Amino acid sequence: xxxxxxxxxxxxxxxxxxxxxxxxxxxxxxxxxxxxxxxxxxxxxxxxxxxxxxxxxxxxxxxxxxxxxxxxxxxxxxxxxxxxxxxxxxxxxxxxxxxxxxxxxxxxxxxxxxxxxxxxxxxxxxxxxxxxxxxxxxxxxxxxxxxxxxxxxxxxxxxxxxxxxxxxxxxxxxxxxxxxxxxxxxxxxxxxxxxxxxxxxxxxxxxxxxxxxxxxxxxxxxxxxxxxxxxxxxxxxxxxxxxxxxxxxxxxxxxxxxxxxxxxxxxxxxxxxxxxxxxxxxxxxxxxxxxxxxxxxxxxxxxxxxxxxxxxxxxxxxxxxxxxxxxxxxxxxxxxxxxxxxxxxxxxxxxxxxxxxxxxxxxxxxxxxxxxxxxxxxxxxxxxxxxxxxxxxxxxxxxxxxxxxxxxxxxxxxxxxxxxxxxxxxxxxxxxxxxxxxxxxxxxxxxxxxxxxxxxxxxxxxxxxxxxxxxxxxxxxxxxxxxxxxxxxxxxxxxxxxxxxxxxxxxxxxxxxxxxxxxxxxxxxxxxxxxxxxxxxxxxxxxxxxxxxxxxxxxxxxxxxxxxxxxxxxxxxxxxxxxxxxxxxxxxxxxxxxxxxxxxxxxxxxxxxxxxxxxxxxxxxxxxxxxxxxxxxxxxxxxxxxxxxxxxxxxxxxxxxxxxxxxxxxxxxxxxxxxxxxxxxxxxxxxxxxxxxxxxxxxxxxxxxxxxxxxxxxxxxxxxxxxxxxxxxxxxxxxx
Length: 736
Prior knowledge:
The protein is α/β, with parallel strands linked by helices and 736 residues long. Among the domains are: 2-164, Rossmann fold (3-Layer(aba) Sandwich); 178-274, Helix Hairpins. The chain is built from 32 helices and nine strands. The strands form two sheets. The protein has a seven-stranded mixed beta sheet, with helices on both faces. It has a two-stranded antiparallel ribbon with strand order 7-9. The longest helix has 42 residues, at 296-337. The termini are far apart.
């Protein structure tokens, strides 16, 4: 049996991931490359006598070191030395895609070409002679249609055969004109004589990287032999100066021109035949005339995104209800089986309610990711980024940042965790960091219950206007903060927005299923486990230390005093739980309820969380927050999902369902100090303050440093509190 590792490589939107899914199916797993945030997908293909371990490299247009994806792809080929690189080439854009192929061949890695999207090429009247292309390049070329699985088995059979032949493919050496060829020969001789980095790279390829001013290779060269590295850099600078004087160009530009010239001469040798009118508009182009139109396009985009969220909330309604009912039933069963005490309280309030609060969002998150996968696989999301690039660029961001904002809850729902992870598509480290730090301002699904509670309680009849205003504030605030960050701590030039608009395609069921499950499982893993620990911790902080014996004794005496002198019949009514109580029994029940409420409030004040909330009150009063609100907001640092339930506990109302939070609404309206201005201040604070703990962890990982996670917590909280104080104080002066 042939067993080896192969790498799938290709341009973005060439169908690489679709082919990977078709080859590996469920036999795949996702992680990160060591030390970086670029996603690493691996899977296994098994067929007859062939077992191939397949690594899906990041999509890239070249092997220069301009982006993290390019560096990762190149390092994998050099360090891991896979048995073969299967280069997925878009048959409908052959000339552009072959540019990466040439770089693989110049690098000296064995290559097999999967000529993908043959159906698209045929629909466009493009006929490709694959045998002629294989003959001219000297590598196997297999036609495929990844979306339907056509050609995948033939591709793997040819890949296994190519691996058995070993790394005997002859490297490609292109002529780049006498100026470049001359210095390449001289540099190559020096490199071969000294054995300079030749254990890792081809000598001619190293010389070419010095001409292209490749920082990664130059850095490795300085470590290996500083003297020779300096000499090579001087030779590269000399030819660069000569080319600038004589041709007004640079080595890297001239090299690219010659590569494309080589490709053009190659495809004109009977490789491509074009039938029909080459100037006609293809279906994708005709659709783009509407969906990317300057005025119609944004309206279409708004309709599609609103439709996405309508689908998400409509389709997830029943499953969310089932999840809530299940965890409610589980809590009731645990309460019935376990004796009253700390263990039952911890399991019901800490574990079941904590996990249930997170998993209750899973159906909503799953349907949202399904909708996004449809838009992504169909090619529409590339159009969204294209249209919004001009707006985002004005605020120091990139057109591709828009998807991170939408996934984080740009309209309603969403989650900051997958939104943070979505920034991996951004190439510029500065624009990526600015996006990382501002996506938590979006109205994620965990914030929505807070907004719905406060809007329903204090702005009746104006719910739609208020929710719309909250969305505008979140988007506007995020863009303005991004502009501030890009002008101060994350200064730097904007990167050009160069993006291919892929042709529209019908998504495959397998692709949608895999993409949806991958993202949903990441949400469950990254959120559920952490929220469980946080919920238990919050329960402990709101429970311990318990009231001293003398305080508990006072409440016991108060209850005994209330019951004393009451007839056995009245006491029996309360104990039996009958609904129609006599006036005497109702008065006694109310009296006992008041005592329990006072005891619960005193116990909460005495707990660790209560002491923290009380200590913060002198400062938080400037924004209109009392000690009980402070407790909920401290819990919100861990997870926004717990704010409403913590408010319910803090106001001695027990467990509160965010969907049916009318009792808490009434309590807030009846509490001295609470008024519409207080609610607005809390809404502003909730929009902008620190991301939840899971999001902070993700920000730190994606940014590569914990300092950015800490910066996000501190900066966002200071900003949120400053805005909340300004709203509350100005509103108070105006008499609201």
